[in-house]
């Protein structure tokens, strides 16, 4: 389905240790995490809080395990702080990723975000940008895209639950309001399905803007419980709303088919934040790797 070298497979460390909730996987070491990634059959990783930030040191740990860095999350605060503050942090983050050989930078706007608030109901309190905030945000995200281009890297925007860019309508406004040469899209299956969006429609509509893919599945019963019981994003994660491909409600076969037909090039990143005390991260990494191999040949 995919040509050799066209797509590389990574897995995010968030299944081993959760950066937003350090109590989840707090005792799991960095070395255990990356060793199990490699053992499960992955060739890349995104960056977690336990990872060394010295490129020389980090590359030494990764290279002997046959791993690369695909990207890393960056929180922008374009709607709530002066641009210069975000820009300075972004350049440090960009330079680290560039030194690690990454080609894309994952960015999500966290101004007024509720994704990290343990007791804030997710769907009832989702932030909605004002017109003024949209103007500031769209200008700022393109300026960050310019900074990424200085290193010949792409900014891939991560639509995310509990933020101002979550829904199809909001993704559309972002895509239509930005230059394709400056802002690309990270396509995350789990966040689209959890939000109630048509994930195949978004994929088809913005295929030419997608330069990074997160493969995440959703447990339908938990997603419905989050809505019904008005709980937070983090509580939903702790209760198991996300899981690896092949373990939830999403059929990934048409996703793989569409991406293959469009000649997508880049990373597929399995990202399924769960409580590692309940969902053994190595076991689920193996399950994800098997599902991907069986359903798209990678």
TrEMBL record:
Stored SUPFAM superfamilies: Xylose isomerase-like (SSF51658)
UniProt keyword Manganese, yes or no: yes
Family of the protein in this entry: Belongs to the IolE/MocC family.
Cross-referenced InterPro entries: IolE, IolE/MocC, IolE/XylAMocC-like, Xyl_isomerase-like_sf, Xyl_isomerase-like_TIM-brl
Gene (name only): iolE
Lineage, uppermost ranks: Bacteria, Bacillati, Bacillota, Bacilli, Bacillales
Pfam family, one: AP_endonuc_2
Keywords assigned: Cobalt, Lyase, Manganese
Cofactor(s) in the UniProt record: Co(2+); Mn(2+); glutathione
Signal peptide limits: none
Gene Ontology molecular function: myo-inosose-2 dehydratase activity
Name of the molecule in the record: Inosose dehydratase
Entry keyword Mitochondrion: no
Pathway(s) served: Polyol metabolism; myo-inositol degradation into acetyl-CoA; acetyl-CoA from myo-inositol: step 2/7
Occurrences of domain Xylose isomerase-like TIM barrel (ranges): 40-294
């Amino acid at each position: 389905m995919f040509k050799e070298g066209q797509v590389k497979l990574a897995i995010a460390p968030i299944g081993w240790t959760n950066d937003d909730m350090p109590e989840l996987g707090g005792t799991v070491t960095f070395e255990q995490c990356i060793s199990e990634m490699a053992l499960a059959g992955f060739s890349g990783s995104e960056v977690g809080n336990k990872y060394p930030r010295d490129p020389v040191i980090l590359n030494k740990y990764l290279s002997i395990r046959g791993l690369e860095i695909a990207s890393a999350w960056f929180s922008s605060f374009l709607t709530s702080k002066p641009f210069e503050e975000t820009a300075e942090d972004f350049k440090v983050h960009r330079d680290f990723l560039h030194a690690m050989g990454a080609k894309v930078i994952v960015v999500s706007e966290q101004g007024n975000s509720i994704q990290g608030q343990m007791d804030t109901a997710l769907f009832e309190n989702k932030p909605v940008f004002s017109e003024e905030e949209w103007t500031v945000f769209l200008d700022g995200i393109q300026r960050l895209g310019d900074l990424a281009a200085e290193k010949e890297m792409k900014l891939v925007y991560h639509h995310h639950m509990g933020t101002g860019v979550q829904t199809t309508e909001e993704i559309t406004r972002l895509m239509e309001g930005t230059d394709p040469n400056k802002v690309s899209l990270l396509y995350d299956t789990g966040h689209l399905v959890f939000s109630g969006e048509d994930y195949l429609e978004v994929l088809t509509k913005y295929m030419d803007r997608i330069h990074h893919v997160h493969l995440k599945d959703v447990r339908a019963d938990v997603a419905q419980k989050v809505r019904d019981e008005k709980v937070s994003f983090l509580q939903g994660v702790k209760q198991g709303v996300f899981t690896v491909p092949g373990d939830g409600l999403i059929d990934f076969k048409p996703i793989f088919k569409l991406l293959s037909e469009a000649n997508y090039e880049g990373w597929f990143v399995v990202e399924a934040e769960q409580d590692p005390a309940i969902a053994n991260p190595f076991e689920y990494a193996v399950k994800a790797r098997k599902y991907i191999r069986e359903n798209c040949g990678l």
